[in-house]
Amino acid sequence: MRRRHALTPRRSPVTTPTPPTVLQVALDTPLRRSFDYLPPAGPSGIAVGMRVSVPLGRQRAVGFVVGLARHSELPLARLKRALAVLDPEPLWDPQCLDLLRWAADYYQHPLGEVLAASLPVALRRGAPARRRDAAWQLSTRGLEESAAPAVRLGPRQQALLARLGAGPLPAAEATAAGFADALRSLRGRGWIERIELPAATAAPPPQALDPPPPLTAAPRAACEAIAGSLGGYAAWLLHGVTGSGKTEVYLDVIERVLAGGRGALVLVPEIALTPQLVARFRRRLPVPVATLHSSMTDAERLAAWRAIQCGAAPVVIGTRSAVFAPLPSPGVILVDEEHDPSYKQQDGFRYSARDLAVARAARHGIPVVLGSATPSLESLANAAEGRYRRLSLPERAGRAGKPRLGVVDLRRHAARDGLAQPVVAAIERHLAAGGQVLVYLNRRGYAPTLFCSGCGWIAPCPSCDARMPVPPGRPRLTCHHCGAEQPLPLGCPQCGTEVSPVGQGTERIEQALAELFPGVPRVRIDRDVIRRRGDIERALEEVASGRARILLGTQMLTKGHDYPDVTLVAVLNADQGLFGADFRAGERLAQQIVQVAGRAGRGDRPGEVLVQSACPENPLLTSLVNEGYEGFAARALEERRAAGWPPYSRLALLRADAPDRAAVYAFLREAAALAAGLLGPDLRLLGPAAAAMERRAGRYRAQLLVEAAARPPLRRFLGAWLTRLEPLRPPRSLRWAAGVDPIQGG
Q1: Comparing C-alpha atoms, which of 318, 334, 320, 339 is closest to residue 242?
Q2: DSSP for 653-716?
Q3: What's the pLDDT at 701?
Q4: Rounded mean pLDDT of the chain?
Q5: Which helix (H) or strand (E) holds 317?
Q6: What DSSP element (H or E) covers 51?
Q7: Residues 78-87: pLDDT tens digits?
Q8: Of 113-127, 319-333, 430-444, 657-671, where does mean pLDDT reach its minimum?
Q9: Rounded to an integer, what distance in angstroms lies between the CA atom of residue 479 and that of residue 693?
Q10: What b/e sequence results for 537-568 when a residue is b if at least 16 CB atoms lie within 10 Å of its CB, and e otherwise?
Q11: Taking a C-beta distance cutoff of 8 angstroms, is the pair 422, 411 a contact?
Q12: DSSP code for 270
């Protein structure tokens, strides 16, 4: 019988249900893995780079979507569902997200913690990425009916309609203008409606901008060279002596980038540098300038981040973490004082902001400029090998010349209270000539410790392998490393003999200067006096105004500040950096001496630099005096090459610390045993060995050092090794972490 198709029910084609998308979510935890969740109920539109709220045990957590998949290793029925999507769009552009993934892999750190570290604390906790303010606008009905000729309105309603005709009116502005009654009336007619607008998040630039000064030949050539690379990746090493105009090169390049409709990221090593630099940039640039640094409150950092992300502030100046600033269209990245160790994060996610700046520029296809008067040996090696292009600014701007550098032999000239007689005489001479004097000592406090001449007792810290510094006028000793305190002893606790302070810190030198030069105004800059917001600005104002004639402090003084009236720099106790166990100690000392010496003679008057040393024939000092920083760097690079140290090798550290010394070494020996089968001919494992300060804050610290000839084998080894270490179950009080490219031994 013929089938009557018209009466046969039509069957739907058999299909296999499409499995829901699985969200791969990274959490801000030490776990090196992502977690699978189902999307939240309802339409979601989730993309990689968005935040989601997810259940984690009995709590909620903010996670980051790092992947979308069709399948999970777990049955879909066992997956929990995400609770909410927190963002309408990804927080990072593709280049930044790729940079963060690369950084997590290179520095061997959990991706969730890396992503979290790139955001303000408020965003890690789920705050909206974009703040929106309430506003009023005319509704469709209002546009039609308010134009009718028969409509009768009061004066305030007419004024409000006229204002709304020019565009939306922020609610706060409407209230401040006294439109509350008119708003209620027009809203009752249905003529206006409430909307949300992106918040105004950046202050406008000043009306009158400072004109740029004329550039000399070398800075102008540097500007043209960098400008020629705009629109493509290039790494520039800008080696300019102090006062040679590096900042003017930065500003010229930024102005060109802004003219092309793009933004600029400027990194500085210290918070103390930002006020002076930001003020100068804001006086020169016709756009808002945002800042990012650790002394900002969480609310301030969030506001700055939002202003940057929405494009309201196309120029960003910040310290280390600003390398992750969400500029929507960066055109150049500039790293000032690129040699500074402050660019290396020393705990948690141990990244180098300088190196990530280079990696980020490469991903965006834009130039990166690394500027310094004392470039790091790594950067000089990169320039020599062609990875960086080198630009030189060998002369100071204007009529300023290089300062005269001399060494005061402490074997011939005994120091009284830390100051040798030739230095005291030079201070007197420069003050009499109307100059300002800078005295540099990289040790804060009054004196390094107390000493008993009877039995040799030296005041120890009860929690560290360190001595307790002596505070002036305070009845307690305080450790600079862990903060431990104890009463100031009246006599030696071992033999009862009277104890006395030995050595000098900045406070003791300040006291000596007050006795030698009574009535001469002074200002001190170190971590003991620069504690609160505004302290550094007030101190620098004392110097800039000329009220302070003597400037005393630690390495905070070497960070790029401009003191045009300083004609003499005295470097005290330079020898403390000559014999350090760290192979980078000589490089750091040379950089500090050259940087602080560069503060002298930046105006029209010549500068003089005196370095006190009991070892004036030391090769480091003689090469600095006779050949300058370039001569020292060439010698140091040859020594590094011969010894096989960075930049001619790659290093990683596995650090561990615990209250029990035996537990630390037992863990590291087990870690070394797990590494044995992974080591190839191009890798060496050294240790376990104690950290430079083995006991700190009551915890013993030790480490294993991994040395490799190149980066790829080191990365492969670390990935496999850390995978083996994670299942270990050391005592709960023990902490361990890996560090790649360490700049200090712990």
Answers
A1: 339
A2: EEEEEES-HHHHHHHHHHHHHHHHTT--TTEEEEEEEEEEEEEETTEEEEEEEEEESSHHHHHH
A3: 96
A4: 88
A5: strand 315-318
A6: strand 51-56
A7: 999 999 999 9
A8: 430-444
A9: 13
A10: eebbebbeeeebbbbbbbbbbbbbbbbbbbbb
A11: no
A12: -
- Interval 177-224: pLDDT, tens: 889 888 988 898 888 998 876 665 566 676 778 899 999 999 999 999
Query: Which of 727, 735, 722 is closest to 104 using CA atoms?
Result: 722
Q: What one-character DSSP code corresponds to residue 342? A: G
Burial class (CB in 10 A: 0-12, 13-18, 19+), 705: middle
Tell me the pTM.
0.86
Please work out, in degrees rounded to the nearest 5, the angle formed at the alpha carbon of residue 16 by the alpha carbons of 11 and 19. Answer: 145
C-alpha dist (Å) from residue 427 to 244, 296, 516, 524: 26, 38, 10, 16
**Cα separation of 516 and 513, whole Å?**
5
Q: Is 507's pLDDT higher than 90?
A: no
Q: pLDDT band at residue 68, thresholds of 50, 70 and 90?
A: very high
pLDDT at residue 602, as a whole number = 66
Q: With 80 as the cut, is the pLDDT of residue 556 above it? A: no
State how far the Cα of 698 lies from the Cα of 690, in Å rounded to an integer: 14
Does residue 635 sit in helix, strand or coil? Answer: helix
Least confidently predicted of 154-168, 235-249, 341-355: 154-168
What pLDDT, on a 0 to 100 scale, did the predictor assign at position 309? Answer: 92
- What gap in Å lies between CA 299 and CA 310, rounded to an integer? 17
How do strand 389-393 and strand 234-240 relate by DSSP bridges? parallel
Radius of gyration of the chain (CA): 31
Which string of DSSP letters, residue by residue, matches 351-420?
Answer: -BHHHHHHHHHHHHT-EEEEEESS--HHHHHHHHTTSSEEEEE-S-STT--PPEEEEEETTTS-EETTEE
Instruction: Indicate the SS3 state at residue 276.
Output: helix
* Calpha distance 591→593 (Å, rounded): 6
State the amino acid at position 393 in one-letter form: L
What does the pLDDT average to over 626-633? 91
User: For residue 117, what pLDDT is reported?
Assistant: 97
Please say whether the beta carbons of 334 and 391 come within 8 A.
no
Please report how the helices 246-259 and 274-284 are oriented relative to each other, as an axis angle in degrees rounded to 10.
50
What SS3 class is residue 634?
helix
Give kind and range of the element (H or E) at residue 289.
strand 289-292
Backbone φ, ψ for residue 550 (5° rounding): -120, 125
Which band of pLDDT confidence, cut at 50, 70 and 90, is reported for residue 171? confident
Cβ-in-10-Å burial (0-12, 13-18, 19+) of 188 comes to exposed
What would the pLDDT profile of 297-322 be if each residue is shown by its tens digit? 898 999 899 999 989 899 999 999 99
Confidence of residue 358 (pLDDT cuts 50, 70, 90): very high
Contacts of 297 (CB under 8 A, 6+ apart): none
For residue 661, give Cα distances in angstroms to 464, 727, 731.
Answer: 13, 22, 12
> What is the helix, strand, coil percentage profile of the chain, to 5?
35, 25, 40
Helices (runs of H) and strands (runs of E) counted in the chain: 20, 31
Type of residue numbered 189: R
The Cα 684–Cα 544 span in angstroms is 52
Out of 414-428, 454-468, 568-582, 611-625, which region has the weakest mean confidence (pLDDT)? 568-582
